[in-house]
Request: fold
Amino acid sequence: MRRRRIVTAGITVAAVGLLAAVTLPAVAGDDPTDGGPGTGQPAGTDGQPAGAHDDLVDALRRDLGVSAADARTRLATERWATRTVDVLRADLDAAYAGAWISRDGADLVVAVTDPAQLDRVRAAGAEARLVARSQQQLTGVKESLDRVGEAASPDLAGWYVDLADNTVVLLARPGAQAAARDFAAAAGVPADAVRVDASDEAPVPLFDVRGGDPYFIGAGGRCSVGFSVVGGFVTAGHCGRPGDTTTGFNQQAQGVFQASSFPGDDWAFVAVDDDWTPQPVVNDFNGNNLPVAGSVEAPVGASICRSGSTTGTRCGVIRAKDVTVNYPEGAVSGLTRTDVCAEPGDSGGAWLSGDQAQGVTSGGSGNCRSGGVTFFQPLAEILQVNNLTLVTTEDGAAPPTGAPTAVPTSAPTQPADPPQSPCADHTVLRDGELTRAGGRQIQPDGRFFRAGAGRHSACLQAPAGAAFRLTLQRFTADGWRTVARGDRAGATVTRLSFSGPAGAYRYRVQSGRGVGGYLLGFSVN
Reply:
């Protein structure tokens, strides 16, 4: 079959000069090279783990109540654990039920559902635990709650997977436990798969907050810089909307919000002008700059520190991931829960585990006098959705700011055509696999493409016996919005057609029934 080259008429997403193409560069952030228990890898040149900056160690010592030596040992253990978890997750496959670091920071615990895998975990140097539900099953329970999240009572503060307890936790205000159980039952969740905890948490976005250095939005609020990316910085979505202008800590013009999402998510990207240079550091508000070397994600149980202009650098432990928080403005999913305190003015600020960037402050409950919980938006999603590159110490000097040069378009590598596929005659082909009912994927390649005004056409071929849904989404000032839905054209084929303006688009493939591999073909004419 003759291949046509992909044609993507260029646009500038949200007027930033940040160009997105079907084939996109990888996100920055290499694996750390320093060692951990049993790795044989070298420590830093001063005998401590790489990334164990003295000021960060001091903050851990203060907030976790440990010695400086114990803080350094913990950081080394956590880096080893991160690599070990990556290997075991792949090896254990469906039997994997999650991993976490013990409360004292000394041990990595890995849960499995298959007794035959216990020795495999122990051989890797971790403590093995046999449980009833896999991580995939626990995630399915939580996603069932997420799907009906709009019906959640205001008396529910949120819900998350508790890996150590092998259950999903619903946080209900005192007296509302029965309402929480009714909510779970309405979502079709088995009663024995959830635990209802009484909580007086009342999470709200920290509107007046900032991360590393403070910045100001228009003539009003203040937030914190999260992390430097090429061309600007990332921060919390509730801090501003596309088009909002910002001034920096010195009250000088700084930049413009180019993309923002809240609720649902809580992230934003601010593009800065040529007077500002993004640097790979975080202000610790004690006269020092903490280095940002990458963005390797830390596991549950790892120590973590955040920086904000109101309360400075505060530390604690990661308690849960993929948490849904029911803010008054609406539910936000995919957040990470910590026992670190925060106060208004800290929103958008940076979260570090060692020298690895983790996310930006979203909201929380409590304060830094009596204690509290705080949630952050993980960094990986912000970088991926917006095609951003984290500025790190590995890059050397910070890259220049301003609009990048447009990259010439070319035909990406195409997967081989299935025999007689009805979807093969399209400009772009992408294959994928959905492994559970209700699961979904974003195409192309988890990202988006740019196109000029014209007619979009797409064809989705699903496996026999499955019912997969196809939607086309366009990026707007209010985030991603569905603009077209596919219609079934046969037992396994769905087709979609839409005429629209120039913009940034993406396809979403979701399983309504069944699992398996699929082929998506799409064109813009």
In short: The two ends are 19 Å apart (CA to CA). The helical segments are 54-64, 68-92, 118-123, 135-147, 177-186, 379-386. Residues 68-92 form the longest helix (25 residues). Confidence is low (pLDDT under 50) at residues 1-51, 206-210, 396-419.
